[in-house]
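User: I'm putting together a teaching handout on how sequence relates to shape, and I'd like one worked example. Could you take Membrane-bound lytic murein transglycosylase F from Halomonas colorata, show the sequence you're using, and then write out its predicted structure as tokens right after it?

Assistant: Happy to. First the sequence, then the structure tokens directly below it.
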Amino acid sequence: MPTLIYQHFIARFRLYFTLSIIVLLILAPTIPKVPTGEHLTQIQAKDFITAHTRNTPTTYYEGRQGPTGFEYELMHQFAEYLGVSLNLNAKHHAESVLSAVRDQGDLGAAALPLLPNTSEVYYTRPIIQMQPLVVYRRGLHGIQEPGDLVGLELGTLSQAGTSEALRELQREYADLSWKESHELEVAELLAQVESGMLDAAVIFDHQFRLNRLFFPNVERGFLLGDPLSMVWAVPRGRGLGLLEAANDFLQNLQENGTLNHLVNRYFGHDDYLEYVGTRTFLGHLDVRLPQFTDLFKQAAATTGFDWKLLAAVGYQESHWDADAVSPTGVRGLMMLTHPTASEMGVDNRRDAAQSIDGGARYLRSLKDRLPESITGNDRMYMAMAAYNIGLGHLYDARKLTEVRGKDPNLWNDVRETLPLLQHQEWYSQTRHGYARGGEPVIYVRNIRRYYEMIEYVERSRQQFFQLEQAGIEDPSQLPFELIPPLTP
């Protein structure tokens, strides 16, 4: 009897075991695998991480001090955190970044929004919040609330996250329609609003703050919908090691305050380079400039520049503040970058004498390095533009000027081309990529105005001195114009 019971038990055990094996084989694909660091191990073995991004002012671009951008700095620090080098691929738009990560990339960092239904990548923890914003062409009235968008020529970028806010709005306003593009970037979208091709657009608030100076005919409208989270993307199916490392890195940056510092540095101000009022300028002219006039004259004597031009550059850079520090770490009266200061032998950028001398010699070196085909004032204006944006981007603008059938040796033609470096259609054809090309245009214009005003004040002082010497007490009776003509 026990033998029969034992045999029955063995038979049932074999049956249950066989059924369990069958069930496991059927369900195996759905059972989560134990996380491994396979992908992270591969990155560390090859000693670099490949990050896919976009060439835009909020992500990555070549700035005055070299590669820069909010997410570039994060990516660079993350690579250091992993102990590897950073290999960057910036020839992307928002949609192609995810494809690249899925196919062969290590990391996607391109102002990516956290969106549902993305099954082929993992997203990291949120980095910052991105708030959709409606902007519209100056002159259009009554755009104050979501319903006002119905019937307008409205545009946005596809796969950037802003279209999600529009889709949500469309549930309430069925007649709402808009255009999307995966080929444009924010600057190009704003250019279409300014030109009248679009009535309005939806971008993110921080993007508008970085671009608004270059599109004076585009107005801030209203916030639309809820903010989205900016995240990074890593591929699925290669272990969770890289995702966990990225999350740990981002959490550390948030806890130690580094992330907040970067956010404030890049997005906490509008970074305007606007021409200040005459009254403010004249106040600085009387109080600040006399402290540095002799230094500007000494630098002018060694470099061959008009001291008043160097003073105008110094005012544009720092408002004649020897202790000035920009949000990006450029500092001193002539706002020298650390590499430029080293190149010019300046060891203390806050020392006014060193800063003025180094800035003047750097401007001279830029002017001397320009092609001989650029002459006269055009050469001076282009050297000033290069002081602001770098020679590489200036050469890119000259090349595009030639492509457009204009003269790359004339400042007026190059000035028209420089803002195109903000548009993907054009900067994709260049060596150095995206640049805030509208900035050097404003920069040179301002310096020319400051120079004219300094020259006018100096000329007026000399005239009044001569009148005093001649015993003339009422100069208002003499026939000379006291209002300086300002070039546009």
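A couple of points you could highlight for students: The chain is about 50% helix and 10% strand. The mean pLDDT is 83.
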